[in-house]
Amino acid sequence: MNERQGKLDRHMCIRILLRSVALAAGIATAAGAPAQSYMEEIQERNASTYEAPWEEKRDVDFPPPPTPDNLVALDAQIIGSGYEYFVDTASVRLGDDQVLRYVVVVASDAGATATYYEGIRCETSQVKTYGFVTRQGAFKPLASSRWMRLPASGPFAYRYVLANLYMCDRDGWPISEKQVLKRLARNSPSGVRLRPAPTDMGK
């Protein structure tokens, strides 16, 4: 009886041990399943919110030279440089690269003018000049065009004013073309102004 009872006890212990292992495996599997799905959810969320490095539009097309009817004056008193500044409302475009591009005419008291095609990147507070209008009345690309910080003083401080008052929101993002035009119309001291034909006055 003792030997038989011993065998029964050993079989019982083995059966209990196997059940314990199976139960532990089941618990581990059940505990691991939500953890795995949670990590997968995090990875999917990160993949969906990943922002690729910013890339500027490669081929920038120049708009037609501005016509007097489309020129809106900026408030030169804010800039205080002694020049007058006019934005071509027909040229304002927000690109897929989130750059607001526009044509601006800079006029001196002597009547000389210069016309530039530029872009403002609100996110980094930078500006880039792509080209200027020559005496022949057509845009010419700059030989060397690069992004620069917005100047807060001097004759080109209008770029800083454009970014902060007309083209960017408080969080540093570009606003829509329609909003830019509304701001230009609302803040222009004299509405549409007529100026002489632009020249190739140097930058």
Q: Can you give a write-up of this model?
A:
The chain is an alpha+beta fold and 203 residues long. It folds into two domains: 1-50; 68-187, Lipocalin (Beta Barrel), CATH 2.40.128. The chain has four helices and seven strands, in the order H-E-H-E-E-E-E-E-E-H-H. It is globular, with a radius of gyration of 33 Å.
What's a quick, concise take on this entry?
The protein has 4 helices and 7 strands; from the N terminus they run αβαββββββαα.
Give a count of the beta strands, DSSP E runs of length 2 or more: 7
* Cα shape: globular
Counting structural domains, the number is 2
Output the helix-strand order. HEHEEEEEEHH
Q: State the end-to-end CA separation.
A: 111 Å
Which class of secondary structure composition applies to the elements?
alpha+beta
Radius of gyration from the CA trace?
33 Å
Oligomer: single chain
Secondary structure: helix percent: 25-40%
Fraction in beta strands: 15-25%
List the helices and strands and how they pair.
Blueprint: H1 2-49, E1 71-73, H2 76-79, E2 84-94, E3 100-107, E4 113-121, E5 126-133, E6 139-141, E7 148-149, H3 158-167, H4 177-187
Antiparallel strand pairs: 1-2, 2-3, 3-4, 4-5, 5-6, 5-7
